Every structure is written in structure tokens, then in C-alpha cells.
Amino acid sequence: KNCLKPLPSSPYDLAVWKKVKVYRDCYVSFDHAFYSIPYRLYPGWVWICGGTRQVRIYNLAYELQATHERASQPGQRLTHPDHLPPEKLPGLLQTRESVLEEAQKVGPATGQVIQELLEHPVLDRLATAGRLVRLANQYGAPRLEAACQKALAFGDGSYKTVKGILKQGSETETAPIPVGIPPATTFARSPAELVGALVEVPSWN
Questions:
Q1: CA dihedral for 121, 126, 127, 128, sign (positive or negative)
Q2: Counting CB atoms within 10 angstroms of each CB, which of 64, 71, 75, 104 has the fewest?
Q3: Whole-structure pTM value
Q4: Does residue 14 surpass a pLDDT of 80?
């Protein structure tokens, strides 16, 4: 519900106030844009005071929690890094260069997989590449490197394939070598040989 609540400072006398729900990703929505808030406020509701230049966010006791510049276009996402949980920061602050550098520290196979992901001509796979590199935190760098080596041998360096190899624990397994089975050999005599042998048998008469 929208309402007006005058503030002591005159620039905000005509600001629009709105009570909004805190999203799971620690953002709130106001006028078709998104603003981060301290993650301790999730789950819950907050007050947004939208002015012409700034957006201020208050808790339900009208205590100031965050201040942002007003978004310049619909869909814009404004973020203060200290608002987000620590585990969310690597994904937020990563760049193509930082992800590739991190991958190369894991090993050459991991670096190649990440390079191929980032070089996709159409899709932006930075987020996927970041998630793949961070698998080293869960499984360890040596296992990730071995899984990437195996994925490249299969010709499929996708995140799904690499993670699947790690979940199965099959990164150190070698592919089975196919055993060639020799063609079956028959020792039967041909019909012509059998008929010929019968004709050559002398009669008793």
C-alpha cells in the first residue's frame, strides 16, 4: 500500500513511501527496479522511501537500513556488496578475467574448459563458468582438474558433465578398453564337399 510520510528534510516531503516484501536474494523492488538491503532483514517487510534522486529503505520501525541512488532505467539492479551474504559475493564480483585466472590456478584442463565456456559466440556463460570453478571449494582442486580432463576427453566440457563426473566420483576412472572378439571360425565342410565325398564312396555290389 502506498502512503505519504513526511521526513524532517524538505527534499523528501513529497517522496513516495511503499511497504514491500524482502525477496530471497536480499533485494526489494520499487518502481520497476531492484535495490539491495542487508540480508539480515530477510524474510520480512520494509518501508521504501522513493525520492527523485535517492531511494531510502527503512525497517518497520522506520530506522534507516540502506540508501541507494535512484535507478535510471527499468530492471536496473543496484547493489551494496556488504548487504549480501558472504557466500554470494564471489558470484557478484567475478569477471571473465578473474574466473579464467582462478581456473588456470586449478590446472590446464580446468583453464581450457573455462576458456571454451567464456568464448561461446552467443551465450554469456560467465555465471556458469564461475560456478564450475567454485566446484573446487566443494570437491578440491585436484578432483576438479581430473574431472575437467575426463570431460574434455569425452568432448563435453559443460558444467553439467563436469559436476556429474565429480558427483559419481569417476574422475579417476579410465574408460574401458574395448576387447576385440575374433570372428567365429567354422570347421564344417561345404555341401559340395560332402556331396562329392558321397559320390566317391564305392558300392558294395
A1: positive
A2: 75
A3: 0.48
A4: no
